[in-house]
């Protein structure tokens, strides 16, 4: 791979970690994965700078940015999406949003179900090459439709254990770490007309009217 | 006490010695705003995208909804600001961003976008205190004279700040419960007025011919602190009692009674602080600075004592990024930059942000 091939940076903060990968063509130059419950907004930029410095490259050497857009922790997703959009603007390079469901099954064969963890015994799932149409969605694990369990179906991703158990399906490991898969998917995407990365929440915001309602006027009669 | 006078500060020039363009990002609550300001004084552009319509149906700001809106619009607002100002990213001297206080999820969106921009353009990053921004919004339209007292009144803040010299803040009084704007919103809801309630109550109060008598919370004789939750409760009690008697109160009279009480206390304490601290100016700042009744009362009292009242135009009273750039310039001149692991601080202290 010639050294002037543009570099692709992929990163993700949608879970309890900060992760990044740097590619030149198919070659992985560096990866980072740091577990952390919080603090991704503080750690992300220094971590990316350290990774670039380790490889001996500069921000200006990046040709493209791939970013995980979720589904996952809402705040975490917004951290990486904001960072990717800010970097794209500063560097004048394209930034591409990559679904973490797509990233989980990247380079996997046969019918598979991407399974990402969600709070309260639920999972974010999406079917790939499955007989049933299974669009990206948030679902209670206990009520996942068992007719999804076609022969040869493999469950891939952090929530694959409970999902596979419920469906009676097999489990397969992801071919790449999320950040590496994000960079690889972004590298292959067509950038023409690609929208700016935007979070993939798969769940409405919890928004209730204010708890302090208007005072109750007691009936005078 | 003041070991760092204005004169002692050397102006840090831009890389080419030309004008200093600071791009500032403000996302602390429900406005997404990006501004470019030259030399801390001249606004080239101040783009503000308000979410008020989105939050109106909830009767207040919903943090998760606000964060979602910020991330949707943040970079196109940065692009629009650069475009309108006709400034290239490479011409910028620094990137500034509100560090706090505010809603953490909202702050984070602006914070990370600003870091990414500064990092990729190899520019210094400046974290700014939101209230310092409100105070220094006045620098965009007025000449400031030190020492001054600032009355900061908004949906989230009610503070009397003594500013002895440039960028040196001391909070001398603050609310012990509700912020002024918060009290306005709660009373407005009780009167079935739309959110945000301030402008509606201000308008009704001006239309009123009579006022419901309501208490004033002066607190201890020497205190510059405020309290508005008792007043809010008094409004609700008055409304309830009148309704029980079958003689509901006129909303105008309630609005005027409430506003009179708020203004009396704010004006008296602000003027007492001006005298006690030998302030050369009284500065009004924050969203409630748009309140006509408050402005008129302060103007009258300031004229009596011969102290100029400074207040920014309405567009600079509400949350905006130009004020963040104006405050950032204080740190820029002193080379006080933030590291890229700067943390968004929902409860950032103003005094700690002093230069």
UniProtKB/TrEMBL annotation, chain A:
Residues 38-127 form the Gcp-like domain. The lineage of its organism: Bacteria, Pseudomonadati, Pseudomonadota, Alphaproteobacteria, Rhodobacterales. It is an enzyme of class 2 (transferase). One of its GO terms (biological process) is tRNA threonylcarbamoyladenosine modification. SUPFAM superfamilies: Actin-like ATPase domain. It comes from Rhodalgimonas zhirmunskyi. Pfam families: TsaD (PF00814). This is tRNA (Adenosine(37)-N6)-threonylcarbamoyltransferase complex dimerization subunit type 1 TsaB. The keyword Nucleus does not apply. Keywords: Acyltransferase, Transferase. One of its GO terms (cellular component) is cytosol.
């Amino acid at each position: 791979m010639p050294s002037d091939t543009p570099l692709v940076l992929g990163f993700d903060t949608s879970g309890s970690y900060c992760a990044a990968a740097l590619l030149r063509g198919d070659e992985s130059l560096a990866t980072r994965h740091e577990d952390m419950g919080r603090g991704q907004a503080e750690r992300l930029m220094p971590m990316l700078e350290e990774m670039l410095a380790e490889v001996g490259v500069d921000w200006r050497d990046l040709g493209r940015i791939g970013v995980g857009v979720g589904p996952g922790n809402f705040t975490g997703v917004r951290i990486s999406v904001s960072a990717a959009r800010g970097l794209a603007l500063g560097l004048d390079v394209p930034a591409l949003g990559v679904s973490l469901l797509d990233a989980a099954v990247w380079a996997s064969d046969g019918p598979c179900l991407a399974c990402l963890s969600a709070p309260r015994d639920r999972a974010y799932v999406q079917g790939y090459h499955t007989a049933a149409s299974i669009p990206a969605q948030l679902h209670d694990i206990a009520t996942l439709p068992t007719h999804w369990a076609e022969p040869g179906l493999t469950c891939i991703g952090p929530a694959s254990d409970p999902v596979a158990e419920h469906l009676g399906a097999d489990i397969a490991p992801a071919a790449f770490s999320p950040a590496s898969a994000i960079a690889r998917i972004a590298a292959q995407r067509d950038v023409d007309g690609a929208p700016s990365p935007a979070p993939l929440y798969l769940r409405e915001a919890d928004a209730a009217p204010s708890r302090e309602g208007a005072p109750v006027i007691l009936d005078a009669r | 006490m003041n070991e760092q006078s204005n004169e002692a500060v050397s102006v840090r020039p831009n890389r080419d010695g030309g004008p200093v363009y600071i791009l500032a990002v403000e996302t602390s609550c429900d406005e997404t705003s990006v501004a470019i300001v030259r030399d801390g004084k001249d606004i080239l552009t101040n783009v503000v995208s308000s979410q008020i319509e989105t939050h109106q149906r909830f009767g207040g700001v919903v943090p998760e909804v606000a964060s979602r809106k910020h991330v949707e619009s943040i970079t196109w607002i940065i692009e629009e600001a650069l475009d309108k100002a006709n400034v290239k990213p490479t011409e910028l001297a620094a990137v500034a961003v509100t560090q706090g206080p505010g809603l953490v999820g909202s702050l984070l969106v602006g914070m990370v976008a600003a870091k990414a921009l500064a990092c990729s353009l190899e520019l210094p990053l400046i974290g700014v205190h939101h209230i310092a921004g409100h105070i220094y919004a006045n620098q965009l339209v007025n000449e400031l004279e030190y020492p001054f007292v600032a009355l900061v009144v908004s949906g989230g803040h009610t503070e009397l700040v003594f500013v002895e010299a440039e960028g040196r803040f001391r909070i001398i009084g603050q609310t012990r419960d509700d912020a002024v704007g918060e009290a306005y919103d709660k009373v407005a809801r009780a009167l079935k007025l739309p959110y945000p309630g301030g402008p509606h109550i201000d308008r009704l109060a001006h239309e009123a011919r009579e006022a419901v008598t309501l208490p004033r919370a002066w607190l201890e004789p020497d205190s510059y602190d405020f309290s508005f939750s008792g007043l809010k409760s008094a409004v609700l009690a008055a409304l309830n009692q009148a309704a029980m008697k079958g003689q509901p109160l006129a909303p105008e009279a309630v609005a005027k009674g409430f506003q009179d009480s708020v203004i009396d206390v704010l004006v008296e304490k602000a003027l007492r602080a001006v005298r006690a601290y030998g302030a050369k100016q009284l500065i009004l700042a924050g969203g409630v600075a748009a309140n006509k009744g408050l402005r008129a009362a302060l103007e009258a009292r300031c004229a009596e004592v011969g102290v100029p009242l400074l207040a920014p135009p309405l567009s600079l009273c509400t949350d905006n990024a130009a004020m963040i750039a104006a405050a950032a310039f204080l740190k820029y001149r002193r080379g006080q930059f933030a590291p890229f692991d700067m943390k968004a601080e929902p409860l950032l202290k103003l005094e700690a942000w002093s230069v």
